[in-house]
Amino acid sequence: RRERQRFVDKNGRCNVQHGNLGGETSRYLSDLFTTLVDLKWRWNLLIFLLTYTVAWLVMASMWWGIAYLRGDLQQAHDDTYSPCVANVYNFPSAFLFFIETEATIGYGHRYITERCPEGIVLFLFQSLLGSVVDAFLIGCMFIKMSQPKKRAETLMFSRAAVISQRDGKLCLMFRVGNLRNSHMVSAQIRCKLIKSRQTPEGEFLPLDQCELDVGFGTGADQLFLVSPLTICHEINSESPFFCLSQRSLRSEQFEIVVILEGIVETTGMTCQARTSYTEDEVLWGHRFLPVMSLEDGFFRVDYSQFHATFEVPTPPYSVKE
Hints:
Blueprint: H1 26-30, H2 32-38, H3 41-70, H4 91-102, H5 117-145, H6 149-152, E1 155-157, E2 161-166, E3 169-178, E4 184-198, E5 204-212, E6 222-223, E7 229-234, H7 246-249, E8 255-264, E9 270-278, E10 282-284, E11 286-288, E12 292-294, E13 299-301, E14 309-311
Parallel strand pairs: 2-10
Antiparallel strand pairs: 1-3, 2-3, 3-7, 4-5, 4-6, 4-8, 8-9, 11-14, 12-13
Helix pairs in contact: 2-5, 3-4, 3-5
């Protein structure tokens, strides 16, 4: 079957784009910090470089302008003359003085004198502006680098979901795993069934979301993810798959979105990993191969068999039938 458009890709990216926002785009500027954090790295680095470059050039030009208006540039080499900033002869020297002041390098060759009130005011303005720019941009870069998005790439989901019997009940199952030794604290898993439907009143609901029970009442949705786990959804009278059979699965069109959330043990930040399964990726009458084995003093996980399944005898009928 031709692959259709997904609501959520296998890597967790949501295929939703917002258009025709009109005047609502101003909301992005009102929350400028979050907007910068959400930008791609190339735009963040470009804004970082441009902001500092423009700020440095503007402030250096203001120091050069004070020296020019006071006539310090013409009498800079006169030892009897008291300039606003000592040893500032031209724009490059004014730029170096600004950098030395802003970065608190303090070489000592260029310094501001007490006979320059406008220079003192500019110095205070420079210190305040520099602190604000540093806090904003460096904070933005730090938050972006510490985002737990990369941690989600070490959380694995099986390529396919399976339907087979477990404990005498027909169940929809898929597998999750954690590739790192560091744990996910308070890990919780949720499932959403994305399927278009029409209400009895005739209203068409595109991409209607329905919750799939993966153990809310029993606490099975709270995971201790130190080894690969098989998540199970029991197909019963309350399940949206109550009328699903092996034959009807071929003609169905739905998408199961899986959301795994937890706190990264090393950073304490919340991480979310997502994936999805379409009807083509649900295997009827299959079961996952075991991946755990007991070694000398520890349990070993064989991730080469993480996605592997094998066929088991399963009735082709729905639970309703």
